[in-house]
Amino acid sequence: MSYIVRPIRQDEWPLLEDFLYEAIFIPEGFEGKLPRSVIYNDPKCRAAFEGFGTLPDDRALVAEVDGEVIGACWVRTTDGYGHIDSATPSFSISIYRPYRGWGIGTAMMSRMLDELLEAGYTRASLSVQKENPALRLYKRMGFRIVGDGADETEWLMVRNLCGYEISIATPDSADVIYHLVQATLRAVYPDCYGPAVVAAFSRLHSLDVIEADIAAGKIFILKVGDRILGTGTVEGNHIMRVFVPPEEQGKGYGTRIMDELEAIAARSHSAAVLEASVPARAFYLNRGYRVTGTQTWEIGPCDDLPAATLVYEVMEKEL
Ligand SMILES: CC(C)(COP(=O)(O)OP(=O)(O)OC[C@H]1O[C@@H](n2cnc3c(N)ncnc32)[C@H](O)[C@@H]1OP(=O)(O)O)[C@@H](O)C(=O)NCCC(=O)NCCS
User: Fold this and answer.
1) Residue 150: which CATH number?
2) Ligand 1 midpoint to CA 63 (Å)
3) What is the band of 19 on the pLDDT scale with cuts at 50, 70, 90?
C-alpha cells in the first residue's frame, strides 16, 4: 500500500468530523449502523472536532492514498475523551476500513509523537474502548494504561514524551536508590563539606531509612527504560533526598522530580519546605525557593572522624 502522511490543510479540517465518526468503536455483534448524530449529541465527541484549527494545541496529520485522504490522526487539549489537562494533547485517530492494518496508523502516530516531542510537550494521552484492537497498537506506541477513562468500558492511556517516567518506589528498588544516593553524595558533597559532615549525610541516608521511607510511600524514582536515574522523597510538604548522579545531571531530571514532589505537596499544603544542601542551593533558588532561616546540626564524633557542626538553610516555596 503506497501512502503519504502529511499535515492537514485548512480546507480539510471539516474531514475530522468524519474521521471522528470512524474512530468510534463498534463492539462485536453490534447490528445496524451507528447514527451519525452520536458525534454531535455527545459534548466529549464534539470537543474532538468542533472549532478544530482555532486553538494553539490543535495539530493534525492525514494519510493520503492516490490523492485521497483516507485517514487522520490529530490532537487537541479540549475536554474530550482522553483529556487529562491543558498541557497534555489527547489523540484521535482513524482510517477508512479498507486501509486498516497496513501500517498507516503506526506511521501517523509515530510522526505525531515526534512532532509533539519536538514542540516540547512532555506527554500525550488518549482513551480507548477496552475491547478495541487498537489497544495493542497504542501499547506498542508506548502508551500505558493509567486507569479507566470516562467509564469502566474504556482505558485512559498516557505516553511519556521525554523518555523517562516518574513513579513511586517499590521495595525491590531500595538497593539501587541507596547506592545512587550514596554514590552521588560521595561524588558531590566533598567539594562543599568536610569528611565528618559527608559521613553524617551518608549515615542519614542509610539503607534501613530508605527501606522504611519506601514502605511509607514517600520515595519517588525517575526511570529511563529500566534504569533509575534520580530520586526524591516527600512527606506532607517536606521535600527531601533529591539526588541525580553527576553523570545524569543537566538533563532536566532534577526538575522533573521536583515538579512531581511539589505537585504531591500541593495536594495538602500551600507551600513546600526543604533543607538545602550547598550544591543544590542555586537549583532551589532558581525554582522559586527562598531562604526562611537556618538550622544547626551538631554531629557527634563517629569512627575516626571528629565532631562537627553544620549550619544549613531552610527554604520554602509557595505552591
Ligand atoms: C486504529 C487504527 C487507526 C490503526 O491504524 P492501522 O493503520 O490499521 O494500524 P497499523 O496497521 O499501523 O497497526 C495495526 C494495529 O492497528 C489496530 N487495528 C487494526 N485493525 C483494526 C481495526 N479494524 N479496528 C481497530 N484497530 C485496528 C490493531 O491494534 C493492530 O495491531 P495488531 O496487528 O497487533 O492487531 C485503524 O485500525 C482504525 O481506523 N480503526 C478503527 C477506528 C479506531 O478504532 N480508532 C481508535 C479509536 S480509540
Assistant:
1) 3.40.630.30
2) 14
3) very high
